[in-house]
Amino acid sequence: MGDPPYPVVTKPFGRALVDLAAARDDVVCLSGDLTRQTEVDLFRDTFPERFFNVGMAEQNMVGIAGGLARDGFTVFVPTFGVFCTRRPFDQVAMAVGYPRLPVRLVGFMPGLSSPGGPSHQAVDDVALMRAVPNMTVLDVADATEIRQAVFALADLPGPAYLRLKRGEIPVIFDDDHRLLLDRAQVLREGHDLTVVTAGMMLPASLAAADVLAGRGVSTSVVHVPVVKPLDAATVLAACAHTRATVVAENHSIVGGLGSAVAEALAEAGLGRPLRRVGVRDTYAEGGSAAHLFARYGLDVSDVVARAWELLDLPGEPPRAETVREPSGNLGPV
After folding, report:
1. What is the Cα–Cα distance from 101 to 159, expressed in whole angstroms?
2. CB 320 within 8 A of CB 299
3. Which has the least CB within 10 A, 20, 145, 146, 195?
4. What are the helix (H) ranges across 100-230?
């Protein structure tokens, strides 16, 4: 695993999907008129006979995806996260989730990564997809995991929702990193605090662990690329060996990773204090991801502050330098 500043690449999802389709002729792709913006211009240009642009009609698009899946195809449906979860939720539940079809919904611009304001900010997508029976939910952290997720999902029974950043994607993990659909990953081990995180909050969580280490706080960092089904055993084992738990996610604190971890702790009867770093119960203004993370409490310093209060440490929590996510986009919102 590398250290910041992380190198970046563009279009890792689009390239992986082309490679998967080259190996499997059952793979098809639908677009809701956001082809270039979701990297599948590469797929369109390579496999035009397996690419279908249905226009700005996401409810119809999900219905078509279900029909193609019933006919034996493995269907990838990339668009912005709000447009494949919130807008066509009934179709996702009844045309994809209920019949347990191999449709892979791919939601770009997760959480507070969009300048488009509440209409484009998918701060509730994980909560919605967690609530759909049979749905696997992924929130991957970097380009390495994006590529591996595309191939891992190809043979997964039933539907899945893949949540990923758009634009310039950091490369955090080395080539020997392995994404498993049934495992969380303990990236660091400590005995004072456990930070459970996923997706775009992984760099901030690792940086917070470094800041805390400088003040003598030993921190475990558990990366959870698969939010559902949650690898509760790994999460619980890490939390059981520390005094407190912070969950950091680029999502509402209602219904996402923080809720999943809290449920696991409660059901196991594991009494550990818990704090959640995420979007509070609010809509957010538009702006860059860096501005929004600072404005709504998703920075490194916010993770450190929650740990500081949980562990009842003396004095003020140390301020920490923000980990600047690459901000480049592939096209206008």
Report:
1. 6
2. yes
3. 20
4. 125-130, 143-154, 202-214
pLDDT of residue 326: 54
Is 206 in the same domain as 304?
Answer: yes
Task: Indicate whether 86 and 221 sit together in one domain.
Answer: no
Q: Identify whether residues 52 and 146 lie together within a single domain.
A: yes
pLDDT of residue 3: 85
**Cα separation of 151 and 256, whole Å?**
24
Same domain, 58 and 83: yes
- Top pLDDT among 119 and 333 is at 119
Q: Is 58 a catalytic residue?
A: yes
Contact in structure between 146 and 169 (CB atoms under 8 Å): yes
Q: Which of 39, 49, 58, 189 is catalytic?
A: 58
The domain that holds 67 is classified in CATH as: 3.40.50.970
Q: Are residues 195 and 250 in the same domain?
A: yes
159-199 tens-digit pLDDT: 999 999 989 999 999 989 999 999 999 999 999 999 999 99
Task: Let me know the angle formed at the C-alpha of 307 by 305 and 309, rounded to the nearest 5 degrees.
Answer: 70
CA dihedral of residues 178, 184, 187, 191 (deg, nearest 10):
-160
**Are 86 and 146 contained in the same domain?**
yes
Write out the two tokens for 236.
Answer: 């619980």
Q: How many domains, the chain?
A: 2
